[in-house]
Amino acid sequence: MTTVRAAITQTTWTGDKESMLDKHEQFARDAAAAGAEVVCFQELFYGPYFGITQDQKYYRYAEPVDGPIVQRFAALAKELGLVSVLPVYEEAQTGVYYNTSVLVDADGTILGKYRKNHIPHVEKFWEKFYFRPGNLGYPVFDTAVGKVGMYICYDRHFPEGWRELGLNGAHMVFNPNATKPGLSNRLWEVEGPCAAVANGYFVLQPNRVGREDNEYGEDAVTFYGTSQVIDPRGNHVGALGSNEHEEILIRDLDLDLVQQMRDDWQFYRDRRPDTYGEIVEA
Ligand SMILES: NC(=O)NCCC(=O)O
Predict the structure, then answer these.
(1) Nearest CA to ligand 1 atom 9
(2) Tens digits of per-residue pLDDT, 147-179?
(3) Does any ligand 1 atom lie closer than 6 A to the CB of residue 41?
(4) Is the CB of 184 under 6 A from ligand 1?
(5) CA of 122 to the centre of ligand 1 (A)
(6) What is the distance between the alpha carbons of residues 80 and 147, in angstroms, rounded to a whole number?
(7) 180 vs 66, 209, 240, CA distance in Å?
(8) Which of 42, 98, 115, 179, when mutated, tests ligand 1's pocket best, judged by the most ligand atoms within 8 Å of its CB?
(9) pLDDT tens digits for 184-201?
C-alpha cells in the first residue's frame, strides 16, 4: 500500500498579514511533526478574504511568486521536507493580478503554479475586481507525494476543470477555499465527492473558518470551515473540520485506491469526448 499523510489547514483572519504568515508557518511545523508529507493552506492564505468588498487597498497583498512569501515557505518546505500548496495573491506584472496556488516540492523546489480559471463576481465574492482569469490551463505536477493538481474555490462548480486535471494525470487535487453559509452549503457537500468519483482521485478541500470581524464591520461574513478530504470512491477520509475553530486536518491517503477505483469503474474508457463538442464552444 502506498500511503501519503496529508494536511490541510483552516484558519481565521487575525487582522494582519505578519501574524497570518507566522500562524501558517507554525501549522506547517505542527503538520510535519505529526508526520505529514504534504500541506495545503486555505485560499489567499495570509490575507483577509477581500472579495467581500471592492477596495483598491487590497491590491497591496499581491506579490510575485518569487517574492518574499513564497521564498519563505519554500525554505520552510525544504527544512521540513513538506510538499506545500501555497494559495497566494500573485502580481504577475504591474497591475496584472491572479488568484494563484504555488506548488513547492519537498526539497524546496518551486514546481509551478495554477491560476484560478473561474472568477466569481456575485454578492460578497467580488473577485473580478482583483483577478484576471487564469491562463495556465490545468497543470499536474510530479511531486515527492505523487501527481498533484490544484483548483481554487469557485472553480469547484465547474466539472470541466476537474476532468482536465484527471486527464492530465492527477492522483490528488488540492482545492483551497473561502466560502461562507448560504447558497454554497449544499454544493460543498456534493461537489467534492462528485469530482472524486467522476475522476478517480483524492480531493482535499481546506476552507476558511470564523468571522472576519475586524476587517469589514457590519459586512463581515463567517466562513464555515468543515474542510474535507475525500477518497476516489467519494468517501470522507476522517471527519470534516470544525465549522467554528481553526484546525489542521491530518489524513492518510491510500493512493492504491486511485487505480482500484479506475479499474472498477472504466470512466476514462467510456467517456465520449466525440459527443461533447458544445462544451468547448464559447
Ligand atoms: N472564493 C470563492 O471563489 N468563493 C466563491 C463562492 C463559492 O464558490 O463558494
Answers:
(1) 179
(2) 999 999 999 999 999 999 999 999 999 999 999
(3) no
(4) yes
(5) 9
(6) 20
(7) 31, 9, 16
(8) 179
(9) 999 999 999 999 999 999
